[in-house]
Amino acid sequence: MKLDWRHYLGLALLTFALFLPGRMSLPPLDRDEPRYMEASAQMLESGNFVDVRFLDQPRYLQPAGIYWLESGAEALFGGPHHRHVAWPYRIPSLIAVSCAVALTAYLGNLLFGGTAGLLAAGLLAVSTLMTAEGRMATIDTVLLLDILLVETALLRAFLDRQAERPTPVSTALLYWAALGCGLMLKGPVVLIPGFGTLLALATIERSIAWWSRLRPAWGWLIMLAIVLPWCIAIDVVSHGNFFSRAVGNNFLGKIGHGQQAHGSPPGFHLGVFLLAFWPGSLFAALALPAIWQRRAEPSVRFLLCWILPHWLIFEAIATKLPHYVLPTYPAIAILTAASLTRWPLQVARARWAKWLLGLYGVLWGVLGLAFVAAGTVLLSRLEHRTNTGAMIAALGALPLLLLSFRMLWQGDRTKAVLSVMASAVIVHAGLFLTVIPNLQTIQLAPRAAALFDDYRPCEDSTLVSVSYSEPSLAFLVGSNTKLLGVEAAAHYLHDNGSCALALVDRRDEDKFRAAMKELGLNVSEYGRVSGLNYSNGHHLDLGLYAPVAN
């Protein structure tokens, strides 16, 4: 079976439909997503599309590419009345995940045929990490699509070399343009897969002659033409601070030490893979003997040279987050799909390997049962109630999961993977449509923002938050939000009390009242919201206060 453009278009539309539910009902998800959304909103409000800012601070972590995409989506589909609505900012990630899944099918089709391509696309689409990232207004799925385009150009040149046919100029244009766009998205990170795959192949084959097929003599000029204008502009605007922070602190700083409490030892990504690529993680592990046996085949060699340099680099650096190795998941999905559709079953021979795979399978099964039960358990524990939609999703997913267990026991991995993929789709639909939107306990920011809107004294009122500083609150309230300590908040209210309210947790209330009293003011409580800050696990009881004269 060979795929054509109609299959890819249909697959992209199906993925779009699969990832669309829940996007409008999901609140901003701390912490990264609302930072991107608020910075993009402020870009539109200020008209400054060079200097990215979050509240009153510069956001010098990566170039402006993702903020341009999100602010453009907000300008097209949002508007002033949508300023604090999340879904327009999530449109770039929705388009990116749809295209990435279709492009994975295209690459799988090129290497191992249409059936493998479709199965690889499915494994990527239902994986836990892709399911989460594809619904958020973050950079990761957009960067994934860009890296997929880079790898597509490399693969086309590689296959042209294998077939001894010329490589068209369009392939070189795609490669260098995708590298330029990747630099505008995430800076030097895109060069890791962009050059890593090439260098790994050159090391194994002891030749880099096919590099000339990508026209490096002039191609780098295209890359620079995309990124250089903004680099010059931000260097002038920031007086050099952007590059010292983005490259020196953010990029290079992650290598030596774990930033923002995200330091982990080597092996982190391998350990998280069971969860992040579920349900495909077990089938990827089972495919290892067949992949090893075929490691010299050109198609397998290319995919391994895509995966290993990227994976090993991010295992080596100190700062680790699961999405750092997301760009390797399409290649892993393609190899897994090839093992299921094209290659005879290979069984590990060593006893220790059999025991290890058996343990991995048990953990995989327990994780699947936990996924099925997660929705109803969360609603019961946090909200002390049940939900019909969550129960229907659990009851629909459980038989398919148990059926996959049976198929695996019988050795029919292809039917097992199809069954568990269907189970995962139902689980995800239940979580994003009925569970997460109904978890009011963890939706502190939306409820605090609604309380503030009910009592805001002026049209452009300021909320001074003392005890709750999550970015979602800033996005929902607006760029006037101030995240201050007790003393600074009291002085701000003293100076701007006619158009400002304060949000204070009960644990900080006595200190806040005392600080206000020293300035000759009392406070009046307008209302309270309480719940769980899921970013740090703290339970908060937040009161909204207005300053009043003694």
Characterise the protein shown here:
- The chain is α/β, with parallel strands linked by helices and 550 residues long.
- The protein has helices at 5-19, 32-46, 65-77, 91-112, 114-126, 128-133, 140-163, 169-186, 191-205, 216-238, 241-251, 253-256, 268-276, 280-286, 288-293, 298-316, 329-341, 351-383, 388-409, 413-435, 444-455, 471-477, 486-496, 506-518; strands spanning 53-54, 57-58, 462-465, 482-483, 500-505, 521-533, 538-549.
- The longest helix is centred in the last third of the chain and has 33 residues, at 351-383.
- It is globular and about 85 Å long.
- The model has no long low-confidence stretch (mean pLDDT 92).
Q: Compute the separation of the termini in Å.
A: 81 Å
Number of helix segments? 24
Mass-distribution shape:
globular
Helix content range: 55-70%
Number of E-type strands = 7
Question: Could you name the ranges where pLDDT drops below 50 across 5 or more consecutive residues?
Answer: none
Radius of gyration, whole Å: 25 Å
Structural class: alpha/beta
State the strand order across the main sheet: 4-3-5-7-6
Estimate the mean pLDDT confidence.
92
> What portion of residues belong to β-strands?
5-15%
Largest sheet: 5 strands, mixed
